[in-house]
Structures are given as structure tokens and as C-alpha cells.
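Quick one, probably user error.
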């Protein structure tokens, strides 16, 4: 009994220390945070709200956002730009780039949440988060999960914004309709909203230069996976649905990384992207993209992150984030890999980084301590090619040979400099989904004519096999001259039934009905 009491006291002291450390960093804003703590300590009925307030304050120290003249110009002009409803991607990206260049000439201020978040804002967020207990799916959510996945007022480094008020009003009718229809589980609600709601943002690569607050984001017409994910989290958390941002910094078999939503349900992560119907739960498993490592964006400080380990040496920007949690095991069966560091570092180093290739360069996805010229990388994906490097003076330096992780072994690639051969490399990026589209071109024809209505059309060339994903050059057996040219997709009856529905293929055919006019 005494031992239990001692443990409880130690735990309480540790939590008090974390809280006190956070409050000491608040400076003049300390009174605002203490006002919140005092407010919820007045009644025993608010004990959980008090714990929630402490949770927010204790983990607030590294959260930041931009303000100042530069941010005001960018966010204000972006808001006006999005309100115009521009959907043409090049136009929107060009205008955003112009706004960014304009803002860079002005003053930008980096603000710490702990020194700026006001008591009224915090209490509004806490009260609203607890108001979601009225929904049937939120009553079984453990308190720790509530604090991590419902309570937080921010997702990335966007300026603080009262997003929950607008989301609650805008999507209330959808939620009420689900409840009246007998849809009472968070997974069913989440899927229904994702698959039936008219897209607020279309998935088009339009990169915003700063993390957008909700009031600007909600007007955006085109965006990347990040913007869709952010909006999805705002909406779901407004109704007590635990939806998170999971991501891979870099695919192991292609360029770029990816972010997606995940609904936490029955101990599992159900992946999807808000506004993208048809892949709820299958967003990752059905992709040909291969992830070597998967992380989760969280609000609380993660002691196992490299920045929190205080490595006492410079580290890459990606690992200077204390809010990333390794969730690889929720998506694949990982294995640990002990790698020999056969190449000495440019200077004494404590840390090594495991890398995957992005078609141009190697990208770090995980780290490990160096011990006796070896590094143990935990929870890595099988079936991927890797290498290990050191980080020194803002550059990466090789530490090992490239290797491939199998289920039972690690195969190092040994270059044989004595036996070389020439190869023709037509492609190094995976086909992804392009094969199905190319397959639709089989039996398509290029035609020439001299009459505008193609009444005298002649088939110049017929596609008899799936073309390569590159320029395809054809020598015509009987060259001739025409005034008009066009490409005719295959008739519906000649299409292969190996992939996609007839309706889907007919829609796809319209994409290729291109007419070329030559004078």
C-alpha cells in the first residue's frame, strides 16, 4: 500500500513539474492559462475538464504559428482568392506563389502558443470538446484518446482559429440525418460524411505556402492531400469522432510522400482521405505505393522523438518535430534491422539515418543510435530498398551499402566493377494506376481525313497492344497527306473487361476524344 502511495506521489510530482515548466515559459501569458485551471478547479463536476486543461498546457510548449504583417497579407489575400472559386490549378498556384512572394518582403513573427493562447479560447475549445459526449459513438472513447484525438485546438502550425463553431453549424444537418437514419457508429458516420458530402476541396496539387487556418481553408477549392486531411479532422473532431493525420515522409518506390486521414476504431486505423469517396478503409492497402515508415501527427510531446532525446548534434529538419508518433505496425508487419556502418562518418556522430530513394535523391525516414559501428532501426517495412547515412553540416553522407530488407534477411547490394553492362532505362517510376488507362487505348485508331466531318476518314494506325508510358514512335507503311487528324477511342464492345466497369470505361473514353486540326 505504501509503495502504491509513493508511486502516486511521484507521478503527481512529475505531472506538476511538467505543468509548472510549461507555465514558467508562458511569461506574461501565465495568468491567462492559470485562469483556465482555476475556472475548472471550482467544481468537482469539472474534474475531467481540469485534467484536459492541464493536458493542453503541458503539451503546448513547442506549438507555434506565424503572425505579423507578412502572415496577415498572405492569409487575407488567400481568403479573397479562394472566395473567387477559382478551380483552374495553374491559375490558383500562380496567384498563391505571387501572394507568397509579396508576403516575404514583410515582417513575419513566430509565436509560441504558450505565450499567446488566451483563456477564453481554451475554455471554448474544452467545453465544446466535452459537448460531443452527447453523441453515442463518443461515450466509449477512453479519456486518453479523447485528450489526444478530440480535445486539441490545432492540427499543424496554423494560427489558432475557432473552427469547431463553424463546423458544428455547417455539418449538423448531416449528423442529424445520420442519427435519424439509425447510423450511430463513428465509422458509419465518418464514412457517410466522406462519401456523400460534396467536396469542399478537390484533390489537385495546389500547394499553400503556410498552414492555413480553418476560416481560409474552408474556402479553398483545390488542395493537396494535406488540406483535405486537415479539413476532415476539423469536421470529424467537431462531432467527437477520433480522426487523425497519418503520413509517410517518403514512399519507398516512388517520388513524394503522402498524408491521409485515419479513423481510430476498435484499436485499428481505418485510412481514408476526406472528400475522396470509394476508398474508405482501403486507402493504403490497395495502393501500389509502398511505405517504409508511417507516422501520426499528434498534439502531445513524444519523448521517443529524436528532438526530445536531446542528441547534442545537428539533426535533419524532418526530425526536429516532437509531435510525431511511429504507427507503422498499424499498417504493416514491421521488423527491426541491424545495419553495419561500413563507411566512416565525416566527423564523430551518434546518430545514423535510414533512407529511401525518391527518384532523385535519398530521403531519411527513420533514425537510430550508433553503437559499435552498427545501428538498429526499429519497425521497418519489408520489401523495400534502403541505405544508411550520416547528417553533417546540412548534408547527408553515406554510412553503408544499399540493401534490401526481406522477411528473414538483409541483402546488401554489392557492385561488381569488373563486370559492367549497358542497359536502356525506359522508366524508373512505377506504373501506379496508369496501366488501366493505357489498356483502354488498345484498339484505338488514329484517323486522317480531308473533309471536316471525317466522312472520308482513313485509319492511319491502329493500336494493337498496350503502349509504353513514354513517347511511342510508329513508322507508317503507307504515308499520305491529310488536312484533318483525330484519335478515335475503341468502341465499347472492343474494350477488355479486365479492369473497371463498362460505365467507368465509357467515361474514361471521353478523356481521349481529342480532335487535332491541321491546316
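Nope, works fine. Designed sequence:
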Amino acid at each position: 500500500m505504501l509503495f502504491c502511495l509513493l508511486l502516486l506521489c511521484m507521478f503527481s510530482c512529475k505531472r506538476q513539474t511538467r505543468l509548472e515548466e510549461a507555465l514558467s515559459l508562458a511569461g506574461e501569458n501565465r495568468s491567462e492559462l492559470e485562469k483556465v485551471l482555476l475556472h475548472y478547479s471550482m467544481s468537482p463536476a469539472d474534474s475531467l475538464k481540469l485534467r484536459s486543461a492541464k493536458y493542453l498546457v503541458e503539451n503546448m510548449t513547442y506549438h507555434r504559428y506565424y503572425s505579423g504583417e507578412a502572415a496577415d497579407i498572405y492569409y487575407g489575400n488567400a481568403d479573397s482568392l479562394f472566395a473567387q472559386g477559382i478551380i483552374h490549378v495553374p491559375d490558383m498556384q500562380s496567384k498563391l506563389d505571387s501572394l507568397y512572394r509579396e508576403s516575404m518582403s514583410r515582417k513575419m513573427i513566430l509565436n509560441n502558443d504558450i505565450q499567446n493562447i488566451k483563456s477564453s479560447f481554451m475554455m471554448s475549445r474544452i467545453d465544446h470538446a466535452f459537448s460531443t459526449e452527447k453523441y453515442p459513438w463518443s461515450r466509449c472513447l477512453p479519456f486518453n484518446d479523447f485528450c489526444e484525438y478530440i480535445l486539441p485546438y490545432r492540427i499543424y502550425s496554423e494560427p489558432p482559429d475557432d473552427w469547431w463553431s463553424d463546423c458544428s453549424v455547417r455539418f449538423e444537418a448531416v449528423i442529424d440525418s445520420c442519427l435519424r437514419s439509425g447510423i450511430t457508429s463513428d465509422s458509419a458516420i465518418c464514412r457517410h460524411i466522406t462519401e456523400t458530402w460534396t467536396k469542399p476541396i478537390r484533390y489537385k496539387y495546389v500547394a499553400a505556402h503556410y498552414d492555413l487556418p480553418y476560416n481560409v481553408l474552408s474556402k479553398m477549392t483545390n488542395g493537396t492531400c494535406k488540406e483535405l486531411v486537415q479539413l476532415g479532422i476539423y469536421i470529424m473532431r467537431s462531432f467527437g469522432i477520433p480522426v487523425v493525420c497519418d503520413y509517410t515522409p517518403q514512399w519507398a518506390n516512388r517520388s513524394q510522400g503522402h498524408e491521409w486521414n485515419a479513423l481510430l476504431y476498435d484499436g485499428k486505423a481505418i485510412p481514408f482521405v476526406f472528400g475522396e469517396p470509394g476508398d474508405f478503409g482501403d486507402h493504403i492497402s490497395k495502393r501500389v505505393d509502398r511505405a517504409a515508415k508511417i507516422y501520426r501527427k499528434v498534439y502531445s510531446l513524444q519523448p521517443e522523438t529524436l528532438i526530445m532525446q536531446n542528441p547534442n548534434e545537428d539533426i535533419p529538419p524532418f526530425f526536429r518535430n516532437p509531435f510525431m508518433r511511429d504507427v507503422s505496425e498499424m499498417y504493416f508487419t514491421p521488423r527491426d534491422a541491424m545495419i553495419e556502418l561500413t563507411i566512416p562518418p565525416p566527423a564523430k556522430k551518434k546518430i545514423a539515418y535510414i533512407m529511401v530513394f525518391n527518384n532523385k535523391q535519398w530521403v531519411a525516414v527513420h533514425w537510430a543510435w550508433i553503437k559499435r559501428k552498427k545501428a538498429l532501426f526499429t519497425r521497418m517495412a519489408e520489401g523495400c530498398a534502403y541505405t544508411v547515412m550520416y547528417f553533417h553540416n546540412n548534408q547527408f553522407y553515406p554510412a553503408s551499402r544499399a540493401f534490401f530488407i526481406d522477411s528473414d534477411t538483409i541483402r546488401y547490394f554489392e557492385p561488381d566493377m569488373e563486370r559492367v553492362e549497358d542497359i536502356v532505362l525506359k522508366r524508373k517510376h512505377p506504373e501506379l494506376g496508369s496501366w488501366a488507362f493505357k489498356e483502354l487505348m488498345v484498339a484505338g485508331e488514329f484517323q486522317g481525313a480531308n473533309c471536316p466531318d471525317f466522312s472520308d476518314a482513313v485509319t492511319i494506325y491502329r493500336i494493337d497492344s498496350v503502349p509504353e508510358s513514354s513517347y511511342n514512335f510508329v513508322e507508317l507503311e503507307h504515308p499520305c497527306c491529310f488536312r484533318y487528324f483525330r484519335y478515335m477511342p475503341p468502341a465499347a464492345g472492343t474494350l477488355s473487361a479486365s479492369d473497371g466497369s463498362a460505365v467507368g470505361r465509357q467515361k474514361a473514353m471521353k478523356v481521349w476524344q481529342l480532335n487535332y486540326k491541321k491546316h
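The first strand starts at residue 64 and ends at 67.
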